[in-house]
Design goal:
Structural class: alpha+beta
Helix content: 10-25%
Number of helices: 5
Radius of gyration: 24 Å
Distance between the termini: 61 Å
Number of strands: 11
Number of domains: 1
């Protein structure tokens, strides 16, 4: 007869999951690689596919009893046109490592009243000027806080080596409720759109959510 056995799993200190660097040391101690990661792939920075919706007609022919019938239908497809970097500039860790003093000063001023979110590498549709794109982005941008959706009060544009950086300013008066798990940034630009999801719990910095 087979005897039952008991498997015991012991916790080994050396195998503990290491905390992310933004939780274990201050920004002043981050390496260049860690700074780059925080600015591009962290709880405060996400990559989002900018998708263009296209509609076109398709034609099919069927033959029945010697007669040909033609039917036209509309078909919609989505195509990725670029990858947009969506970053929470007003979050304390992102603000601390902002490499541009003038940009950092502007965001610091705005951050008292607004959540400041940047959009980098946005493809501007043909026929749109930069000003057209800025206006269109402000009109369509929404911050989904779970129980409510907020429109951007302001939109600004800054310059970078990658081209224009669009800045969305959402009012901090729209507070994030305790039960909110995910915040979503949604943006439309002509016939393109993109969104980014941010986990509120993961956005903690120095013991509290940093937005």
């Amino acid at each position: 007869m087979l005897k039952p056995f008991l498997t015991i799993v012991l916790a080994v200190p050396g195998l503990a999951v290491a905390a992310d660097f933004w939780q274990s040391k201050p920004p002043a101690e981050w390496t260049a690689k860690e700074i780059q990661r925080c600015r591009t792939n962290s709880p405060w920075a996400k990559a989002s596919n900018q998708v263009r919706s296209m509609t076109f007609n398709t034609t099919t022919e069927t033959k029945t009893a010697g007669k040909t019938k033609t039917a036209t239908k509309k078909k919609s497809v989505n195509a990725v046109v670029d990858v947009v970097q969506v970053r929470w500039e007003s979050a304390a860790p992102i603000l601390a490592i902002n490499p541009d003093p003038a940009f950092r000063a502007a965001v610091t001023k705005w951050a008292a009243e607004y959540y400041v979110i940047s959009l980098t590498n946005v493809t501007i549709p043909k026929g749109f000027s930069e000003a057209d794109a800025l206006n269109n982005i402000q009109l369509t941008a929404r911050l989904d806080l779970g129980s409510k959706e907020v429109q951007a009060n302001r939109a600004e544009v800054a310059r970078s080596e990658h081209g224009p950086v669009f800045l969305l300013l959402f009012p901090r008066a729209a507070r994030v409720e305790d039960l909110t798990k995910t915040i979503t940034v949604r943006v439309g630009l002509d016939n393109t759109k993109f969104h980014a999801d941010f986990a509120v719990k993961a956005m903690a910095f120095e013991g509290k959510p940093s937005l």
